[in-house]
Write a structure and sequence with these properties.
The protein is of the alpha/beta class. It has 7 helices and 5 strands; from the N terminus they run H-E-H-E-H-H-E-H-E-H-E-H. The longest helix has 13 residues. The two termini are 24 Å apart.
Length: 154
């Protein structure tokens, strides 16, 4: 599925999600399954490596390409786009024209920024937060702390 087809066909009822998905885990799977249940397609705005470094204070364990490959292999997403290199632009919202934007339970500041952006540009795209799946076990920051950095492939 290419971006042109996504805009004209599938995106009539698509859900846009944002994320890093660096250590893909059961919490991500639950999040993407829930997002998929809310529309016909899930489109991922996958954070660029430079933005991950800026947000988390260290580079991702896996490159953008590796993270995108894992997402594709999961079978849970319809399309993956690279996120903006400049935070706060949200160009994929304009490109994808989603019917819904879904956020993870821990993406509070991102949701606030997107909601403000939507209001500023007078769009009528609903947003929602998907609840956590075992956050005491499946949270990227917890998993990253115990992750063996010698592993280089997802």
């Amino acid at each position: 599925m290419n971006q042109k087809n996504m805009k004209k066909e599938t995106c009539k009822n698509c859900v846009l999600v944002f994320g890093t998905f660096d250590i893909f885990h059961a919490g991500h799977v639950a999040f993407l399954r829930e997002a998929r249940s809310l529309g016909d397609a899930v489109v991922v705005n996958l954070a660029q490596d430079i933005v991950v470094q800026e947000l988390k204070g260290e580079p991702p364990l896996h490159s953008w390409e590796e993270r995108a490959q894992v997402l594709r292999q999961s079978g849970l997403v319809s399309e993956i786009f690279p996120g903006d290199k400049t935070r706060g632009m949200f160009s994929q919202i304009i490109a994808v024209k989603p019917s819904l934007i879904a956020f993870g339970y821990d993406q509070i500041r991102l949701k606030e920024a997107v909601d403000a952006w939507i209001k500023r540009y007078a769009f009528t795209i609903p947003t929602m937060t998907i609840g956590a799946y075992k956050p005491d076990k499946y949270k990227s920051s917890i998993l990253r702390a115990s992750y063996d950095r010698s592993q280089t492939t997802p």
